[in-house]
Amino acid sequence: MSKYIVKIHHKGLMVIPAELRKKYGIKEGSEAVLIDENTYIALVPRSRLIDLYGFAKEYSKVIDKMIREVHEERKVEARS
Predict the structure, then answer these.
(1) Is-contact 33 44, C-beta < 8 A?
(2) How confident is residue 80, by pLDDT bands cut at 50, 70 and 90?
(3) Domain 1-46 top-level CATH class
(4) For the chain, which residues make up each domain, given as ranges?
């Protein structure tokens, strides 16, 4: 585990060191999730769904259909 010290700018911005951006594939416009763990904050890069397809790209249409079905089921459940 490595430790990095960063400064927080006046608007709450901070610069993630280049080594970490490269290691975790963080680019301009990337999203991250901040998790409040009560004693510290964890920053977790958010992956786009398309990036998670990996070697399963040939099944992307099936996966997309499954995601749409789950989304519709959740909408129906939310109305109940």
Answers:
(1) yes
(2) confident
(3) mainly beta
(4) 1-46, 47-80
